[in-house]
From TrEMBL:
The keyword Zinc applies. Keywords: Kinase, Metal-binding, Transferase, Zinc. It holds the Pfam family Mob1_phocein. SUPFAM superfamilies: Mob1/phocein. Zn(2+) binds at C83, C88, H165, H170. The keyword Glycoprotein does not apply. One of its GO terms (molecular function) is kinase activity. It comes from Aythya fuligula (Tufted duck). This is MOB kinase activator 3C.
Length: 217
């Protein structure tokens, strides 16, 4: 039900970036359909994230990275009117955590940005990576690069920071929109996935530790 509910709660026009779609007829599309069917079946999310027998772990990770990008993109796109230069001049998770932006082009050193600027840079950066055939190959028989899981770790680590910022700074907006249950489900799905494959360092998870213990028991 989650995908259906998300569509009802969130306005798709507010998606921060265009959705990345899987090409019908490809193995990745079939895997995506399999993952979506499991999600909608009401199975425990811990079970849903497990690698199906006989499937490639890199394909499974690729499908989920793209799907989480789409979902988190949608959540933040809906919240973005409440996340402004004025309300969030620093990309942070409470008083204790501040996230600085660094990439290989414009920002070569960790740079302090407002939350909206950080989110904009992040979504552009992820979109560039998942559309790069050398990193996320879509043609049959083309292997994943050696550093593929390393790249996915970086993407998922930074996507986790979107949850940190949204939960800590914009939770009242989530509640006012009636979206709490849906955002929580998306977060749990994401959390169980990154834990299943040890894709994000446990230190990065600290800002939401208490909440995670409460909702992912």
């Amino acid at each position: 039900m989650m995908a259906l509910c998300l569509k009802q709660v969130f306005n798709k026009d507010k998606t921060f970036r265009p959705r990345k779609k899987f090409e019908p007829g490809t193995q990745r599309f079939e895997l995506y359909k399999k993952a979506q069917a499991s999600l909608k079946s009401g199975l425990d999310l811990r079970t849903v994230v497990q690698l199906p027998p006989g499937e490639s772990i890199n394909d499974w990770i690729a499908v989920h990275v793209v799907d989480f990008f789409n979902r988190i993109n949608l959540i933040y796109g809906t919240m973005s009117e409440y996340c402004t230069e004025r309300s969030c001049p620093i990309m942070s998770g409470g008083l204790k955590y501040e996230y600085r932006w660094q990439d290989d082009s414009k920002y070569k050193k960790p740079t302090k940005l407002s939350a909206p600027q950080y989110m904009c840079m992040l979504m552009d950066w992820i979109e560039m990576l998942i559309n790069n055939e050398d990193i996320f190959p879509t043609r049959i028989g083309v292997p994943f690069p050696k550093q593929f899981q390393q790249v996915c770790t970086k993407i998922l680590t930074r996507l986790f920071r979107v949850f940190v910022h949204v939960y800590i700074h914009h939770f009242d907006s989530i509640i006012n929109m009636g979206a709490e249950a849906h955002v929580n489900t998306c977060y749990k799905h994401f959390y169980y996935f990154i834990r299943e494959f040890s894709l994000v360092d446990h230190r990065e998870l600290e800002p939401l530790k208490e909440m995670t213990e409460r909702i992912c028991h």
